[in-house]
Amino acid sequence: MTDTIFSKIVRREIPADIVYEDDEVLAFRDLNPQAPVHVLFIPKQPLATLNDATAGDAELLGKLLLATAAYAKQEGFAEQGYRTVINANEDGGQTVYHLHVHLLAGRRMHWPPG
Ligand code: DGP
């Protein structure tokens, strides 16, 4: 897959407001926040979209979600609530082709999404 801006963030080639990091996962604030809290959780090793994940990525996908929930608990909004979103391809609204989980919180979310 081609390199994206997110791999540049992983390599510290461009700046980002990083809020969480472990061996496999990096989380940083979205440049264009859609809620008071808007953080992106990404695997350091890129997958372009969720479609590219295989059974071998199951543990990594679990770690992404667990890191998201742990952050929500740590920051104190887990009980109040939050939303996680993975956009895939054009109709999903994906713009950066490096798999990421959006974590949105700090306001009431609406359903269905637009
Ligand atoms: P998506 O539409 O699901 O592919 O979301 C991509 C998100 O990435 C979008 O909400 C804006 C954010 N984004 C794009 N470029 C940058 C960047 O250079 N830095 C940061 N922090 N976020 C970015």
TrEMBL record:
Motif (Histidine triad motif): 98-102
Pfam families associated with the record: HIT (PF01230)
Residue intervals of the HIT domain: 5-114
Molecular function (Gene Ontology), one example: catalytic activity
Active site, renumbered: H100
Protein name: Histidine triad nucleotide-binding protein
